[in-house]
## 1
Amino acid sequence: MLRATSELEFSNEKNTEEISQLASLVLSGDTSTGEKNSTGLPEKTGYPDSVYIMAANIFQGIRFEKSPEKVLIKYGNEPLRSLPESEDESFQRSSYELAFSALKFQDILEAILIDSCIFPSTTIPDHLSSLIIVMLYDFQDRKFQARFLSDNEEPIAEVQEVENLLNSFKIKLAAALARCRIKHDALSIYHILPETVRNQELRASTLPLYAWINTCKISPEEVYYSLKKRGYNKVKSVLHIDDKVFAVDQHCYDVLIFPSHLKNNLLNIDLFKDYKLIFQDKSRSLAVHSVKALLNMDDDILMVNTGSWYTVAHMSILTNNNTSKIFVCGVKSQAKDPDLKNLFTKMGCKNIEILHEAFLNIESKDHRLQKVKVILLLPRCSGLGVSNPVEFILNEHEDTGLLKDFSQGGTSEDKLHILVQQQYEQLTHAMKFTKAQAVVYCTCSVYPEENEGVVKKALEFQDHGIKVQPYRLSPPVLPLCSLKEIHLSTDKFFRMEPSEITNGCFLSVLTRERDPSEAVSVKDVLARAAAKGLLDGIELGKASKREKKKKKSKIPLSKAPTNDSNDIQMKIAEFLNRESNANANRSETLATKTSLPQKNTTTAGSSSHVRKPNKPTSNPSGPTFMKNTAQPRPYERQTNFVRSRPEDRVMALKPVEIVLPPVMLPFSGSQGIKSQIPTQHFYYRWVGPNTVLPNYFPSPSTSRRGEKPRENLPSSLLRHPRPWL
């Protein structure tokens, strides 16, 4: 007996040592509740009971089914009862992460349960099999340590039953895990996963966080200041930095980048709680910024398969200063409308209208969509360019069945073909909207079949029968920030490959020429801006005096945008009428001015050709010139021929006084001779026109700018009018 006891003690010590070794070797893809000891953070302590129940129900729907001859563990079809708190976002994220982790290791976990004799020796109901799988994964991930239970948590009987079962088989489960590791010659069960899945999880653990600024609530400068007060420093790149830093994205001016380890800290600050900063994948920000670059002030937008409502909100924020309206289609249940309106109200969004019809069921000539000029298409895709599949499923409202593809590192050919066909149908339907001028197509896939394959096929087979211009591929409207991006965009597609700084993204812009009948003139644009109050304080065009006499009152421009269409139309009409009258008055003025040179009266336009009289000289034999005379005589001004100006250079002329400085005469000769020229004789002898007009008096402006008259000239020079001969 002693020997047996000592052997039992030795066996227990050996099993305990094996469990300790496993704790340092087993790696887990789940990082939602803590980190390993190597990071210095607390170890995982388990989940609340409600998370296990929800994760079991998710796993039940996405697990891999085996052929009947290979089935060793039977799963029931009845879902477990969930508590109301399972609707909380944090509970959902934890549940999906736990279910996805169990899915990746489904074969290994089933083998451990059979090797440890839990199955089929125990009489556990089939509907609890999914719960056993997810709780076993968490149990080994916690290094077979006890779970921490909160005093405020309401226990669930099914969870307590399974937990007691696993604790009673703890040593056998650890031994079965060790044998599995040895069988696959792996340091941990993590290394048994396909290489693509391992690389994906490695990127997910280090991928930076992207958050866009809600500029309806706060400006970027205020965000920078608030973050700086909390100890966050602005840098150019957040890679390989463990401090509290952030950077501004190069493609989207309103997107900030944070290191991945700061997420829990950031979620607790007011900027995120008050919807001033919103976490979202960068690919969605690229999509909405591409749409914004294609919009005019009053163009509407149609969003298809938006996924996350944050994408809709971001589009609304970017168009807040426009009169654009955003239509969102595909919302199946009207029961979500109050929640969505509440969310949009909190975020400051006002121009969103929800359509409950499926996109393919909406007619291209729907009266509600006649002002839609840009269609944003975010089709369901494989999403294999995304590093964190759980976030992709939750944020984009995708089918949980995609988790199967993520767990295997790829999509089956059959499923890929179905997705491609759906994407092609949606893109071709979007191209049928005759009023639309652009379609933005964006995916998170790395498969060419879902990206350029769909776009090129849609362009090739587009309908040319309708009376609109055909679509064509346009270059990216986003800045290209590196040589790699330029190389990837040579064929007019915008691509970002999955990397350590971003998820994969594909973006294509299809545009066509605007219908000439719908061309918007500059007047229309200014009128719409004036009607909305965007040009407050800017004088667009002055009304003529004749128009002012006709109108006793003038309606000022509105200082704030209004929703009354009649008021806007009235202001637009008034502005266009005022501009037309102003142009007519300019034409009349131009016609009057061009006819003046034929008259012999003095005009303001001739002032540029008239030089005012200079200071009088002391020589009585010369003419007297007065400067700045208050009441000039009629003969002291002349009427010259005015050159006609082109219409595009017509400007209002005002009479001015120009006094030109003395210059040298335009002929060759010595300086001494020039200094002796009698300037007064020059004025009398130099006559421009052959025929002297009535009341003509020669002026310096017609004499090639002669020298200033000199005083005290010798009297002999007066008898020689041309001394240079």
Note: The two ends are 151 Å apart (CA to CA).
## 2
Amino acid sequence: MVTADGYPGHAHSCQAGDFRSAFTKRYLKEFGFTIPDRPISVDDIRMTKCYFEDGYMDTSVYLWEELPCGNSIQGPAIIIDKNSTILVEPSCEACLTEEGDVCLTVGSDPQCAMGTELNTVQLSIFSHRFMSIAEQMGRVLQRTSISTNIKERLDFSCAVFGPDGGLVSNAPHIPVHLGAMQETVQYQIRSLGNKLKEGDVILSNHPCAGGSHLPDLTVITPVFRKGVNRPVFFVASRGHHADIGGITPGSMPPHSTSLQQEGAVFVSFKLVTGGVFQEEAVTEALMAPAQYPSCSGTRNLHDNLSDLRAQVAANQRGSQLVGELIDCYGLDVVQAYMGYIQSNAELAVRDMLREFAQRRRQQKTGSLEVESEDFMDDGTPIRLRVQINEEEGSAVFDFTGTGIEVWGNCNAPRAITLSALIYCLRCMVGQDIPLNQGCLTPIKVIIPPGSILQPSQNAAVVGGNVLTSQRVVDVIFKAFEVCSASQGCMNNVSFGSERIGYYETVAGGAGAGPSWHGRSGVHSHMTNTRITDPEILEKRYPVILEHFSLRPGSGGAGKYRGGEGVIRKLLFRNKVVLSVLTERRAIRPYGLKGGEDGAAGLNLLHRADGRILNLGAKTSVSLEPGDMFCLYTPGGGAFGSEEDLKKGGPQSKRRRLHDTFTERGSVFEYRMAQEGV
């Protein structure tokens, strides 16, 4: 909210004043930088009614500079200053003193003092307050970033962590980020300890430090309070940067075999020291991959620096809001309710495990042990055995038998498996609780070292975050028979040159469940991003979106149908390097209880000279003007018994997709076939 006082109108502004200059100065003061030549959105609001405990009430709005000294204002009212807004609640009175201060007299409504003892109403309020902090961090990050990947696709996450680094609350951003971010914060606590000072901000992305894959840069800010020599909270934001160097534009190389080929690496890098942004040092680190054979430094340094500043600004907002919460209730109360929120999540998971065990007994299976297995497209198995202790409401998730580390980039750091597990547990809990550290308290996780789920320190991991994570989710849900497999892939598409870099993930079909059909054309499980708007895509990059639709018949048939995948065709106008990193091209998403599997995906390249090439699941290829990339994403598996399918109802007559082609001129098309036709 800005006024034009002190900024008179001129030939290039409106008559009421130069609001642009007023806004720019306010923006610079709040965030520490400006973004020249960016459009400014104006949303002019004057409130006349506000909602209080007794409902909507007429609320007067005043400008501070227009109020005379000694004037008294009865609440409810709003007083607007250049830098703040003051709410005068009902039964309260505001008076302006001769010194220019506002003196508030609080009414006589009875107030209850807050203590550290548990109050269920306050527990709900604090849960939403913590989540609101993460959401506001996200809004600041989206507003101040400039890259397509963060500003438009929303490929970022924000969260609040306790003094031990445990996740307290998060906004509903990207699931694969949230569980792993806790590992990142805890690594910095172990690594830096007392070296963390007020005014420091840490940057990290290395898998050994809780990173997911290198393009996901995590910015961590410790929150200090006067009189306490250690951080009382941490706030963090993780954003996917579309290019941080490496062997291919977009920093998502399909054939990387070592971490150094995937871009710039940060373990415990001080991005801000004593309040000073370390631009020179971080620039040097972002360009460092050029020292390795066939690698380049970042191809879009301007976006990297701007988005890192935006992440710092988002964390600053989170730190301010945590401080305001502590000022309002006191540190002891806030940290007490932080513990209650985590304990509530723990209790919910224990209850879920007990209920599952009871259902198993009612079904006379006798065993409180469940198993499942699925495979990556290269045949690498992911195996899980879950042993449930009904009395304690605890479980052991044992991934022994999972395949060894691969010569490629589908290795997933341990933090990724924990992210998938905490996400699945949260989904299976039948109540609304924040996703936080408490979900994992009743769980023991066994992951064999040297496996694809806990690879060596320098293993390539860029595909583990976006592909293997989805397979881990499928394996967990299969063990509990929660739902059929979703597309099991994020369908990673990146392209670029020495001047540009673009990255997107593409939706597919969701798996069906015991009482629902799978959703079509959605991001599922570990991803939760938008697709770039066609207008923005075509304006900023040398590409035309030729086709974007659902993929009919790709969902599995059954009592409850699997969701449909999508078809997306990109026509390129300039020379670029295209990288495709996908899964579920060989092994189809499974159906459950007799439900049909979803269709596998397919990546085709239509050359301008008429040739059509199958690119396979993972490839990098140089494109010429006129080449078109055609992406067919997997569908979801169906859920339904074999008897339901044999009854011949309308669902079983649904068209099936046969993975064959019919040639029509120089264009191959998927053809649908009725059963028996």
Note: The radius of gyration is 27 Å.
